[in-house]
């Protein structure tokens, strides 16, 4: 099973906290080495393909292990 949790590169993380402030499910927390993603059964966003934390990260330290592909179904 592939995890939908964001992957954080602690070497790139500057501990600004932007991702923590926008994470609606509270899975991102500040650790000694920077931001960490913690497993939570309350998180519905990461299972519905939210990537807001990745979008707001100014250093590119966060990547989400999925790609959203939209198809319009037209032939």
Please describe the topology of this protein.
Elements: E1 7-8, H1 18-22, E2 28-31, E3 34-37, H2 52-56, E4 62-63
Antiparallel strand pairs: 1-4, 2-3
Describe it:
With 75 residues, the chain is an alpha+beta fold. The chain has a single domain (7-63), classed as 2-Layer Sandwich (Alpha-Beta Plaits), CATH 3.30.70.20. 13% of the residues lie in helices and 16% in strands. It contains 2 helices and 4 strands, in the order E-H-E-E-H-E. It has helices at residues 18-22, 52-56, and strands at residues 7-8, 28-31, 34-37, 62-63. The strands form 2 sheets. Strands 1-4 form a two-stranded antiparallel sheet. A hairpin with a 2-residue loop joins strand 2 (28-31) and strand 3 (34-37). It is globular. The N and C termini lie far apart (33 Å). The model has no long low-confidence stretch (mean pLDDT 81).
CATH fold-type name: Alpha-Beta Plaits
So what's the CATH class? Alpha Beta
Helix content: 10-25%
How far apart the termini lie comes to: 33 Å
How would a textbook summarize the main sheet? 2 strands, antiparallel
Overall strand count: 4
State the shape.
Answer: globular
Low-confidence stretches: none
Structural class: alpha+beta
Taken together, the total number of domains comes to: 1
């Amino acid at each position: 099973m592939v995890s939908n949790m964001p992957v954080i590169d602690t070497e790139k993380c500057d501990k600004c906290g932007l991702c923590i402030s926008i994470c609606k499910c509270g899975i991102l927390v500040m650790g000694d080495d920077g931001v960490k993603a913690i497993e939570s059964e309350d998180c519905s966003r990461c299972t519905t393909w939210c990537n807001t934390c990745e979008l707001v990260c100014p250093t590119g330290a966060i990547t989400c292990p999925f790609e959203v592909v939209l198809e319009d179904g037209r032939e």
